[in-house]
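Quick start: read one record
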Amino acid sequence: MALRNIVKEGDDILRKTCRPVDKVTARTQLILDDMVETMRNAMGVGLAGPQVGIMRRMFVAEPLPGEVYCFVNPEIVSREGTQECEEGCLSVPGIYGLVDRPEKIVIKGLDRDGNPQEYEFEGFHANVMCHEYDHLDGILFIDKAKETFTPEASEPEEE
């Protein structure tokens, strides 16, 4: 496994829609493994393909330590409720925001071995999955944030 460079806001790649993965191969698995290592090294809880320069529909997430999810060609099939989430992003360092996300989702896709998987997530887990999913369509959390702020700032800024 290897650490990959994390693409930062301002790079056009973060604003593009990713293409589906044609087939899960050993190379796909290596990329997913690299993404997990890169995410952990950067102390993140999720990382999507475009954030490491891979324009394919895939992301990894670890909402709780040791609870790793790999999604290839994910699709959110249902959304329920609303929650306000405080978010940050490895591609937008130093900025945080308040974003409305679904309280509960059902997401399906392929796992790192190419097998179909489907999960129902609530709360923070749903937040993480929606955030990473947005990356695959060129959407950053700052695009949806009601307010953004930096840790040093005492008052959130209206968007």
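Residues 26-41 form the longest helix (16 residues).
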